[in-house]
Amino acid sequence: MEPLNPIRSNKWRKRENQNQRPKSKSFSLFILLSCSLLLFITYKRLLPPSVLSISGNSEQVLVPPQCTSSEEFRGEKFLWYAPHSGFSNQLSEFKNAILMAAILNRTLIVPPILDHHAVVLGSCPKFRVLSPSDLRFSVWNHSLDLLRNHRYVSMTDIIDISSIVSDSTVSVIDFRVFVSKWCGWSIDGVCHESYRTRQRGGNNLGLERTLFEDIRKCGLLLSGYNGSMSNCVYAVDEDCRTTVWTYQKDVEDGILDPFQPDDQLKKKKKISFVRRRRDVYRALGPGSEAESAKVLAFGTLFTAPYKGSESYIDIHEAGKDPRIQSVMQKTEFLPFVPEILEAGKEFALQKIKAPFLCAQLRLLDGQFKNHWKGTFLVLKQKLESLKLNGPPPIHIFVMTDLPMSNWTGTYLGDLLKDSDAFKLSVLRGDDNLIVETANKLMDIARGKNLESVSKRSYTVDNHCDPQSFTDILLYVEQTVCSCASLGFVGTTGSTIAETIELMRKYKACSG
Question: pLDDT tens across 471-499, in order?
Fold first, then answer.
């Protein structure tokens, strides 16, 4: 047998390797492409569809004309925010929004009143809250739902802000007017019956889908899902987990806030947040990245004292800025509109017709459903003291979320039975007084006509008018309680009770 030639053998191996390399490269390329495809599919599934729809292709991003045009809203800049939870929380946020708009010299976009807890924030003390972009988009969607269902009620339909806008302290614009101009489509297209019919399936379905897609994209943009856009939208991503906003504090900007997540919470929830105190004017005012943006979009603007700090906004005085100090004084108490106040007074004077005590008893919602004993005990002690001061019966106006049909077996049921000692009065949503007041407010439509006080010529289509004001009862009840000459007993921890106390402090009933 002829021996193998080492050189020949090596040449053969070399050629063999050369022939195999392309196959190896092809196989590696196949693996790389497969992994990339798998990664893309996984990434696409993890991201919300709404994010992909607006950020997947830059040509698909809906850029409002106001980002590139100076004709509409020339020289004007806006502040938008995301209210949440119940009405009292939304009112508190509205006051803070007025303050922030004044500090940053921006026109405030006035929101609707959201359904009770239709949008929730979470817990600031537990560092567990909805992100600002998610909160904003939730508010956007719910606001459109209110329009489509003809239940849209502006905050200024219920709250009187004439003292704020009459002297141009703060400029305001209705949310409906703003989005119709900003997004480039008519509100009429959202709430008109023909649009709703097409949405269920009918003619021009393609046109309806285009409008709906434009609406959704504009909401995503304003909500900050695509991040901030230079000279257009600045999305404030700082929330109560990381930031406490201040103004003109004589301290170093950016210092640590006294309240931080404790070690147990950090370990349990794997939290890495650090809360800092930041001056809102320095961070978002002149000279900042946010200054050039047409729209400054906050998330929540709710704040409350907690363990020696504030949950989000710590601005209680501005001694160096008299204008802002005046705004804070005006917004400490914002009354209901005159029609609501008059309805409450009418019920107190013409229905109760005697000095009375108001009992605001929150018994069914959240934490309150577990504290009936304590809630009733405070009322019982107050009534015992009133018994010593005059002859029976003691008149009581009861404001409660517990239906009268369920009073049997409770302290309220006992009071109702003892008609010689106590005379109880309640208001219902179908009472003529409530229905008539709601009709008056719909006829006036202050929110829709905000242009009359902010010197605007824009209008909102009549197709969008609400068909009913479902929560008028709550506001009239609070006014009745402000008229209670024998005193007020409120549920501890209830923001409604806090609102009534403020109304009584400012003598809303005597105006």
Answer: 899 999 999 999 999 999 999 989 999 99
Question: Which is it for strands 422-425 and 276-279: parallel, antiparallel or unpaired?
Answer: unpaired
Single-letter amino acid code for the residue at 220: L
**Residue with the two structure tokens 């004589």:** 250
Q: Is the pTM of this model over 0.85?
A: no
- Tell me how far apart the alpha carbons of residues 186 and 215 are, in angstroms, rounded to a whole number: 10
Q: How far, in Å, are 124, 137, 242, 298 from residue 127 at the CA level?
A: 5, 20, 9, 18
Rounded-to-integer distance, Cα 65 and Cα 459, Å: 19
Max CA pair span of the chain: 133
Assess contact for 64 and 178: CB atoms under 8 A: no
Phi, psi of 214 (to 5 degrees): -65, -40
Q: Match 């517990």 to its residue by tokens.
A: 402
Give me the residues paired with residue 108 across strands.
Answer: 79, 172
Write out pLDDT tens, residues 103-151. 999 999 999 999 998 999 999 999 999 999 999 999 999 998 998 888 8
CA distance from start to end of the chain: 122
One-letter amino acid at 154 equals S
Which DSSP state fits 356? E
